[in-house]
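Ticket 4471: requesting a sanity check on a complex prediction with beta-D-glucopyranose. Repro inputs:
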Amino acid sequence: MNPRFRFPDGFLWGAATSAYQIEGSPLADGAGPSIWQRFAHTPGMMANGDHGDVACDHYRRYRDDVRLMRALGLQSYRFSVNWARVLPQGTGRVNAQGLDFYSRLVDELLENGIAPNVTLFHWDLPAALDDRGGWLNRDSAHWFAEYAAIMFSALDDRVPQWTTLNEPWVVVDGGYLRGALAPGHRNLYEAPIAAHNLMRASGAGIQAYRAHGRHAIGVVFNIEPKYPASDSADDLAATRRADAYMNLQFADPALLGSYPPELREVYGEAWPDFPADDFRLTRQPVDFVGLNYYTRAVVRHDTDALPLRAAPVHQPHRTHTETGWEVYEQGLVDMLTGFRRRYGDIPLYITENGAAFYDPPVVEGEVLDDPLRTDYLRRHLEAAHRAIEAGVDLRGYYAWSLLDNLEWSLGYAKRFGLYHVDFATQRRTPKASAKLYARVIASHGEALGEA
Ligand code: BGC
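Returned structure tokens:
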């Protein structure tokens, strides 16, 4: 035990998941299809033909999973709501059975002393809304506010923490620009429109919260710090473009009410002029911001890497995860201190952090040894502690993820869980990283000092 790593009193320890990745039963009890249901059942979109029909079967096993959370000593659990369970058509008629699932989950968490942290949108847009243009339709902000208000009215009496969107950049880059994620579009003209409407929706959701809610609401960004490969003017400019595209495109309209000028360089003529009035909607006071951190990028100028004219430079001397991401814990410190410099002293949470490393599909024994993930977790928790020492108002940490789950179009082979899931039997087995995390939580960080 090392008191040097003790976290501030009240620091919240959690783990995160998302609906489509773990729930299964996507059409049960009157739920409508989401764009992920549709995408996963489109030939060629998913690695190994995987889909979320069963996933971790959490929809039926949530009580057992809450017990796993309790065994870790979690104080908070971050999960997302599948919008189409609650509103099968995206707007209009409420499906009481779908809403009831989340209500029962919330009660189960509270009975086990775990605070629910609810994300309203983690990528699974109702397919019916995609049919109306999805995030390209300016009405999406109103659709989202309608749905958000229903959730607040139903659960805010028991939910202390809400977030509007998870990682809008991934929706835009994967879903609208590169087509690797739902809804599978590849269109440079659509990307900035989808991005803008996502941030209008987030703002409209926060406005709805001020009318219906009495706890805290924020938004979650994935921030990937960008470092120039050299001091050349070209590399520096490429790094600024990459940062603007991935990071500032979302945080700036939400927190500053503007876009960085580099986005015009990224999009060229595909950059639309948005009505100035829209920023009154995007820029709403937030109670906190959640930041997801996985890796960094070292960036160089590259005229072939479009639209950014910026390419990542592989760092061969460092460890990489199964998703090819460099393990770079200093990036977590730089992300937090950099965010504070740009946006001021907003309470921050790390709402996701974790790593896919190879684990076998079937395990024997009571605990699965996962030395690389355990090392990743330890390094990043220590980095979080350094950021607090550097003055960042960091209020909590959520490990990604509670369970091995559907890693979107990469399927079930990429395992991020603290608990191993045998997808043939649904057996859960704690990994050594889960054991470390439980010790860290129980000691309020001091176990990080162990050899
Ligand atoms: C997402 C998760 C995802 C994780 C690992 C984040 O981008 O919020 O849904 O599984 O990173 O890729």
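Notes from triage: The longest helix spans residues 190-212. Leaving this open until the requester confirms.
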